[in-house]
Amino acid sequence: MLGKKILNLALVTYILVFTACNNEPKQNQAELADTASVAIAIEVPQAIVKDSIPTATIVEEEEEELELTDSVNFAKYAVEEVSNLKKAPIDFSSYPEARSFRTRIIEGYKEMEVNFAGHYVAIYFGCGASCIMGFMVDVNDGKIYDLPLGEGKMCFWAMDRALHLASSKLFISSICKQNENDKNVFYIASLWDEEAKEFKDIDKKEFLVSTN
User: Is residue 66 a contact partner of residue 158, using CB atoms and an 8 Å limit?
Assistant: First the structure.
């Protein structure tokens, strides 16, 4: 009997110890890290790119426009009146060499009115690089005359060419510069002599009027 009681007591003790062990909270073997995240700022160096070739400074130079301070005084050589009569037929016998340009002369004479020295129709056309040539026809009798154009009356840097008026005997063949950048100009001009029926060279001081 005593042995049986001891066995029962031992069994009860074992049960109590086992139950107590199961009721104890289990301890985590690893501690959890703080749930609050720590922001770590990592500064990443940026590559600095430099041009190996320095930027060229572009300087824009304002192009200076050529200012003509003088004006042409066509009125100084004015004719008494400008003809409005019917045009006479062209007389090619008065200038046989002009027949080589027959078509251009006939067309120009037909299309244009009096445009020089009171009773002449000036007709001109290209004759190569920086060159024009031409003739004029008298509407009174159809006779043909040379215009002061072509070789010797032209220039490479021409500002203007063949300037004339129906009411004036002054003919400006060219207004020129010595080179592209030159600010000064020079004039190639002629004056029609009605009695001699020819052009004569004239200096610019005879027809320019300063606007200053």
Answer: no
pLDDT of residue 46: 46
Q: Residues 117, 133: contact at Cβ < 8 Å?
A: no
Domain boundaries, the chain: 70-210
Nearest to 192 by CA among 72, 79, 97: 79
C-alpha–C-alpha distance, residues 107 and 111, integer Å:
6
Q: Spell out where the chain has E strands.
A: 70-72, 120-126, 132-138, 144-146, 157-163, 170-177, 186-193, 198-201, 208-210
Q: How far apart are CA 192 and CA 77, in angstroms?
A: 9
| Mean pLDDT of the 107-112 span | 97
Tell me how far CA of residue 10 lies from CA of 2, 3, 5, 22, 179, in angstroms: 12, 11, 9, 19, 131
pLDDT of amino acid 52:
41
Decide which of 29 and 125 is more confident: 125
3-state secondary structure (DSSP) of residue 181: coil
